[in-house]
Amino acid sequence: MTASDAERSLAREKSDIEEIVEHVLLLQARSAAQQVRPLGRGTHAKGTSARAQFEVFDVSIGRDPGLANRLAKGIFTKPGVYPATVRFGNADPKVNSDFKADVRSLSFSVDLSPGQSASLEAGENRQDFSLQNTTTLPINDSRGFVAIMKVLTASNPAAGLWFLPFEDKLRVIRILSLVQIQAHQKIRPYQHLRYWSNVPFRHGPNDVVKHSATPLSDNPGRPLQKSNPNALAG
Fold this sequence. Notes:
Elements: H1 3-7, H2 10-34, E1 47-56, H3 65-71, E2 80-90, E3 104-111, E4 126-132, H4 142-153, H5 157-162, H6 166-183, E5 195-196, E6 201-203, E7 207-209, E8 212-213
Helix pairs in contact: 2-4, 4-6
C-alpha cells in the first residue's frame, strides 16, 4: 500500500483523528500548566476577537459569464451583507509576547439566516473560514499531523522523534523545517497582513478554491510597541 493509498483509508483517517485529538488535549493542558493559566486553545492560544461585516459582491460584474456561474455557489450566490465575528491569533499553543516570531491567523464566522446559503446543511446558520498569513500549511496529511503531535507532546522531544518510524521522522523534519521558515517573518499588526486558506476547499460540486484576505492600503492598524508586548491579546 502506498502512502497516498493509506491516506484514502477512512478507517485510518478516523484513527488518526482520534490520536490527534488526544495529543492536542495533552498539549493544551501542558501549555496551560507551564504558564500557570487557565486552559486555552490547543493551538492559536493567544488572540483577539472583533465584530465585523462580511459583504458578498455581485460576482457577475466584470467577469466572464461562465466563471461567474462557477463562483456563484453557496453564500456567494447573491450579493448581501452579513454580521460576522473575526478572531486574529498566533499559531503557538502558548501565550507569548507579540514580538515572538510566529505565524498569524485569521478566522471568522459569518452569521446567516436559515436558507440564505445553499451550501449549509438544514438547521445550520453560520459559515466558518480559517486562514493564516502563509500560503500553505506544512502539515499536509493526517499521518504528518499525528507524528508532529507525538514529538511535541513527548517528555523528551528528541527521544520522541527517535522512536518514530523512519517515514514519520521524515514527515516531522519536513514540517519543522517549513514551520521555522514560515514563523520567522517581519512582525506587523494583524490588520496589515495578508491571509490565505492553507488548503483548498470545495466550492460547489466541481471546483475547489483557496480563499485570501487582503488588507486595504489605508488600513489604520498601528505599529506594535515594545512597551506593550500584549497588544494583540483579547
